[in-house]
Structures are given as structure tokens and as C-alpha cells.
Amino acid sequence: MTLTFKKNLVTKMLLCLGGVVFLSGCVNDQSDKKYNDTVDIPVNQEMIAELTSPPFVPTPVGKRMAKKLIVDLEIQEREGEMTGGVKYVYWTFGGTVPGSFIRTRVGDEVEFHLKNHPDNKLPHNIDLHAVNGPGGGAESSFVAPGHEKVFSFKVLNPGLYVYHCATAPVGMHIANGMYGLILVEPEGGLEPVDKEYYIMQGDFYTEGKYGERGLQAFDMQKAINETPDYVVFNGHVGAMTGDNALTAKVGEKIRLFVGNGGPGLVSSFHVIGEIFDKVHIEGGSMINENVQTTMIPAGGAAIVEFRVDVPGTFILVDHSIFRAFNKGALAMLKVEGEENKAIYSGEIRDGIYLPEGGAIQSMPTDGVKKEKEEVKAFTFEERMKFGKDKFTATCVACHQANGQGIPGAFPPLAKSDYLNADVNRAIDIVLHGKTGEITVNGKKYNSVMTAQALSDEDVTNVLTYVYNSWGNSKKEVTPEMVQAVRNK
Ligand code: CU
Q1: Structure confidence by residue, pLDDT tens digits, 175-234
Q2: What is the 291 CA–ligand 1 centroid distance (Å)?
């Protein structure tokens, strides 16, 4: 910020020196006037800033005057779940990843209180990209466990800004979840919308590969190589899917405050089945319209707005698409309301077309055979727990968390006559995949299920979970049964 501002000044000075003719134009420079006006915005009252956990944001500033805004943020180092059975020690601003959302307006004077909980093990600090000052506040906020640091800044530039920890090793502090967003609304506030949400992408680097159970340590070498095991929205796999999906009603105008904490990857943010009516590019003042995918750099943000026209589940992804379907960068927006066949017809015809592309694909098996020591389930409860974890990691995108499937695309597993009729057929499908038409509960499905690269133990667990959930037949599945089908 400081650098850019100085550079602008230098440029302006050079321009002024370069042509005396333009001297009067320089004196009345609009941006200088605006800048001075912002600095001079008076601050009369004091208020405590409302802070929210993702995916929620504080109340819009609307027409409120500039104030002295007290921000109280506590750093917490705490264990959380990356995905089923995978634990990770997150370092957080306010107990969540991303950290608490801070909402300000131009002209506010923010008095920032950064508190480092006494149970924490490390010192931290904060660099807010909305600050004009050395280190974005980092130099004034370096705080040891059990201490509090206070500094203040005048909010000058409207926009959506990232904040993050800047304590060495900086990359590691960010990789552990130390980032969030601070919004600076212009005078008079942003235009009102129906729903606002807070989403932030981050990449995580664990010693074990994706889905490997247990407490996972941070892997510095993977971080340096920028090869994350997890790329997620809001700190963990499935933070906004199933019951935690974002919601809206047909006709509503949605605004998403989207940030990218990195530390390594740039995001290609996209909502499947929607077009952004407006994008505040890089979170700044320039607005682009009718955008399919917007790039969000590491340490950057964007504000996207769109009206939802038809009901359905809209999937939010990083369109570097393996990150979405294999590393976790996937969220859901569930829209309820009236169909509008003029905007979207739904399926009109279903015919068979099978050239060479219709064959079943297999997931790569590399790694499955080399699995060092597989954690085995000894009890039914363990089978159910491990099975649920595996289901969440592998099956949930198509069959959904409650086994309902996706109408017209993926068959339900809940109360499924097809599933309950034949356990060996179910084992076979998990092991070898399935293509072609089947009828489930009276409805026809014609999709492709890929063969899953799962061990016998995994298949046993996941099918035990499926058969003993959602009103199914409670069939018992054993590793021996799976082995028998595999060797058939
Ligand atoms: Cu830190």
C-alpha cells in the first residue's frame, strides 16, 4: 500500500515536472482530493466491531457514519477435522478457518486488539492488506501467548482485503489457516442484496496423503513444492456441503465475498450452473460483468454477485478441477423455489449413445497396494465410523450425504431396492464400476460409476455403513465376502 502510494506520488511529481503547462491539472488532481477527504473523515463515536465466523458476514454498514471501530480478535491454536478421520492442528484468528470476517467502512478508525490465547504455543501477528502502514500492522502486532497487542489505522481504500499472519515461517502460519477477510465498504455502503456469504480457499499440506487417517502433521517440503493434499473452502472438506450447504431462494440476489489464503495456489473460482452478473475484480473498484470464472490470487479476493434464476444445487469449485473432486475445493449452494422452464428446461430426452468413450474408467490404484499399515476395524461401531469416513471422502459427491443421490443423474442408496436385493452385486459394482441402465426404486438411471481403488477393508467398511444407514437392510459385509468377489 505504502509503496504503491509513494509510486503514484512520484509518477505525479514527474508528470508535473515534465510539463509546466499541465501544472494546474496536477494541483487539482481528483484522486489526491479524494484521498485527503478520506483522511479527513471525522470519527466521533466508538463501536465494537461485529465479527462473524464463515460462511456468515456481519451486518452491512449501510449509511452509518465513520466511527472508531474496536476489533477484538483472539488467536487460537486448536485441533480440527480436515475430513472424516483426518485431524489437523489449525492456527486460527478467532477459532475458525478462515478467521472472523471484519466489516468496516471508508473513514473508520480501527483500533485493533490482537490477543494470543495463553494455551497457544507460538507468537503470531497480523498483516491486514487494508492497512496503509509497515507490514500492514505486522510490525506493531507481534504477540506472544498470553499477551495482547493494540494498534490502530485509518481505513482509506474501499475494497475486500485479505489479512493473514506474517510471523516466520510465514508460509507455515498461513498454511495452518491463519488468514481471513476484511471488507471496507464505500461511503453509503455496498448496494443491498438478498444474501451474503463468506468463502475462502486455502491449500493444506499433510504428511499423509488425502484421506489418510489420524492426526496429520504439516509437511514443509510439500508446501515448498506447492503440492497440497487438500485444497478446500473454509478450512476443511465439506465445510459447505450437505446440511452445511449455503442456501437461497429463486430470484434472490447473492453476493459472495471470496478470498484466497493460499499459501501456494491461485484459485479459478467458478459456480457450476451460474454466471456472475458482476465481479469486483480482485476485490477492488473495477467491476466486470457476465463472468464465468474469476481468478483469485493467493493473498487476494473478489466480490461476485449473481441472481439465482432456477432451483437446484449449484456447485462452487476451483475450476482447476481435480482440486474440486479430489482435494476438497467444492461447496454447494442449494436454491429452492419455483421451476422456470423458459430459463432451464431440465432433461427433455434420454437416449443411448455409446461410442468408445462409454467404458468404465478406473481410479488410479497406485498407492493402494503400497498402503503401509491399514488401520483395521475390529468392531461394528468402528466399521460404521471408518465406513462413514470413506463414504464422505469418496462417494458423497454423487450419492449425497444422506444417500439420496441426485435425481436423474446418480441413483439413491437410501432405501434402495437395487442395493438391498443383492450384496455381491453391490460389492462388484464398488470394485469394478458400473455402466448402463439400471432401475432403482422404479426410476431409470444411466450413468457411469468409476471402479473405486479401495482395499477390501475399505469396501467392507463403506458397504457396512451404506447397508446400515438410511433405512437399508442392515446386511453384514465381511472382508472375506469382498475378497471372494474380487477373486471371482
Ligand atoms: Cu501466526
Answers
A1: 999 999 999 999 999 999 999 999 999 999 999 999 999 999 999 999 999 999 999 999
A2: 35
Going from the Cα of 144 to the center of ligand 1, the distance in angstroms, rounded, reads 10
Distance CA 198, CA 261 (A): 13
Rounded to the nearest angstrom, the distance between the alpha carbon of 119 and the centre of ligand 1 is 14
pLDDT by residue (tens digit) across 105-153? 999 999 999 999 999 999 999 999 999 999 999 999 999 999 999 999 9
Cell numbers describing residue 323: 482440486
**R_g of the chain computed on alpha carbons:** 26
Q: 250 C-alpha vs ligand 1 centroid, how far in Å?
A: 41
Q: How far is the CA of 220 from the centre of ligand 1 (A)?
A: 15
Spell out the residues 6+ positions from residue 154 whose beta carbon is closer than 8 angstroms to its own: 38, 39, 107, 108, 109, 110, 132
CB neighbours of residue 349 within 10 Å: 4
Between the CA of 174 and the centroid of ligand 1 the distance, in Å, is 7
pTM score: 0.74
- For residue range 297-347, what is the model confidence (pLDDT) as tens digits? 999 999 999 999 999 999 999 999 999 999 999 999 999 999 888 888 877
Compute the distance from residue 173 Cα to the ligand 1 centre, in Å. 5
- In which band, very low, low, confident or very high, does the pLDDT at 355 lie, cut at 50, 70 and 90? low
Measure 178 CA to ligand 1 centroid, in angstroms: 6
CA of 80 to the centre of ligand 1 (A): 17
Chain centroid to Cα 334, Å, comes to: 16
CB-based contacts of 4, cutoff 8 Å, min separation 6: none
